Amino acid sequence: MKYTFAAILAIFMLKLSAQEKHFPKDENGKFIYYKVVDSQVLAKAILLERAKNFVSTVNKKSMSLITSTDTSVLAKGKLIIDKTILVAGHPSGELNYNFVFEVKDGKYRYWLTDFEYIPYQRDRYGNFVATTTIGTPLEKSADRLNAGSWKDIQASAYLKVAKFGDTFKKYLATDKKTAEPTKKETISTKKW
Amino acid sequence: MKKFLTAIFAMASASCALAQETSTSPLEISGSVDTYFKYDFAKKPNIATSFASDHNSVSLGMIDLVLKKKTGKASFVGELSFGPRGQEQSLINGSDGTSSFHIQNLYVNYDFTDQFSMTAGYMGTFIGYEVISPVGNFNYSTSYLFTNGPFQNAGIKATYKFSDKVSLMAGLFNDWNVYTATRGVSSIGGQLMVSPVEGWTAYLNVLSGAGGGGYGTIADLTTAYQITDKFKLGLNAANYDINDDAGGYAGAALYPQYAFTDAVALGLRGEYFKYKNVAGIEGEKYTSVTLTANIKSGGLTFIPEMRLDHSGTKPFAKENGMAAPNAGQFSLAAVYAF
User: Fold this and answer.
1) What is the mean pLDDT of each run of 10 residues along chain A (192 residues)?
2) CATH-assigned architecture of domain B28-337
């Protein structure tokens, strides 16, 4: 019983802490996810190449490259926001965004902004699809009837974007070429 | 019921755990619940379109449960419905006193490539604008076009997506709305989807073979255009000819909708519908106007609705039982989607 209570409390605390996280606003009043990363080890050209790969190869289905220069990458993309019911759930909408990456010697920065949310609705075949092509800016305040669910969407969007940011940072820090293939261990039954 | 729910949660938990290891999508669970009150001005059920049939009663629609899972390129959808809307009012074997299987969708799908996929099983029909699930409709009552068209098609279909703007589907199907074919795999169907501009999608549908009332061909146009962020316009037009002049129907419905806020929208459905003449007997004509509001709060939508129907052949009844050319009703529905 006490373990059940502890588990419920942990889930509740986790939910509360998730709700506390939210996007700061930029100088134009738009939500932004902005990070500056020190990267003394890797050369500027390598970071730029990896950023381009991240957009064009790793996330080719959900991102598209708009422009790139020798110090920057500009792309747009979308993330699927999920609605969770206990341990299962379903997609509740998609979050469109613009992605900017800039690099100089010793550090880089990236940010995601211009977030627009498009809700999903179940279609006649039981699949979740976009209800409209016109997105709602994520920083827009919702009317009173939908304030609660809009806050949940904002919180879920933040978590999803933060996860995306972590993945991007890890990708840039990882040298794929030096990764050794793992040797599969075989068990011999002849010697014992 | 307890065992059923336990099984679902166990499957969901196992699916989540497995998903972390194999990067498949977790089991999706979604659905809806709906209930309604309807008051017919003739004080008896009068308008014979589908659902919301009870007069002066707080009545049930259905509880709808949908499961979906995708593993790699393969996926399935299973949709079960319990309640009048999802059983005897929409499933053909529900009204004969035997048990209904309650199935709205049950199919498997395989994506051979990003462009090409095949689907087999029992699926919501590709014909028409309105659907059985109240979550998929703006209006709570349904059109004559919906009521007289197919609800589901069992069969196998192939879809090729040329781009986000054009796709083509072709398939072989059983007769309408049955789990088991009564006349063999007897229908051929196709759908061309085009999206000429952003926000505008049109479906041109054809289904030919065994259907309602005999062998025939139904041609259908279903389109919707989100003209501004507030205003959406939908259109459904269909023609169904049963072979040997044995009947059918033709009609069109227009669906303008305006969103005043994120929570409140107002929509109109204007419909013209005519049954085809059979053996020289003139088919009935109907015109119908339905004014509907959608008031949303989270997953809950309130749907107050006023509907007025007219037919020159007086198929409706007055309060005193006399035939009448007009019928009207008010309804208030609550639909919760999860």
Assistant:
1) 52 48 89 93 91 93 93 95 76 95 93 95 93 89 82 92 95 70 76 78
2) Beta Barrel (2.40)
Looking only at the bridges linking them, the beta strands covering B116-124 and A63-68 are unpaired
The secondary structure of B290-321, three-state, reads EEEEEEEECCEEEEEEEEEEECCCCCEECCCC
* Residue B10 scores a pLDDT above 70: no
- Look at residue A166 and tell me if it is in a domain: yes
Number of domains in chain A: 1
CA distance B81 to B66: 9
**pLDDT tens digits, one per residue of B231-262:** 999 999 999 999 998 999 999 999 999 999 98
Asked whether the beta carbons of residue B263 and residue A145 sit closer than 8 angstroms, the reply is yes
Numbered residues of chain B with Cβ closer than 8 Å to any chain A Cβ: 9, 12-13, 15-16, 26-30, 66, 68, 77-79, 104-105, 107, 123-126, 131, 133, 135-136, 198-199, 226, 228-229, 232, 261-263, 295-299, 337-338
Closest chain B C-alpha to A109 CA, distance in angstroms: 29
Does any domain span residue A179? no
Identify whether the C-beta of residue B38 lies closer than 8 Å to the C-beta of residue B52.
yes
* Domain CATH for A63: 3.30.530.80
Radius of gyration, CA atoms only, chain A = 21
pLDDT tens-place string over residues A39-66: 888 889 999 999 999 999 999 989 999 9
User: Are A90 and B262 within 8 A, CB to CB?
Assistant: no
